[in-house]
Amino acid sequence: MSERSAALSTFQFISDHARKTSEIRGKKVGFSAWKSFLYHLEFDDFSNLTLHELRDRFIIYCDTLCQINARKEALPFYQSLCIQFPEWKEELDAAIKALDACASYGAYVWSKGFTFDETGYEKFRDPSVRKILADAGHEAMHNDMKAVEQFENILKKEKNLLTNRSKCE
Length: 169
What we know:
This protein has one domain (31-158). Helices cover 77% and strands 2% of the residues.
């Protein structure tokens, strides 16, 4: 497979996964997972959870943040594609910027003073604090969506090129 085809397959996989509305083993994926995650972060009632249950919820949240933070791991790959395929540069630059902003949400919890102890868990119990986390999460989700849209723009651009070539032949 050529590098171009591999990159396009990657963009298609990312788009398909992000827009998937079905579940994998009972778990939401892509944007559906984002929406569910942020809804539960903001609206679940943590008031009656034991400290142990609260800690478990906090750890799930932190695990998700690690996955979001991992978005930045692919940025060098996308930057290399800008050089290899300058016709995609505009879309890739926008996607890189959006993914970098999205990934920054991964460290957001630490900037708000959360800790892995009773004080941090109790802070996480507070719905007004979780609302702040959810609002920032919505912005991160929007950036993730923006990046996927840029990948889809590249796919459309490539499809149009193929269509135009076949019309000329």
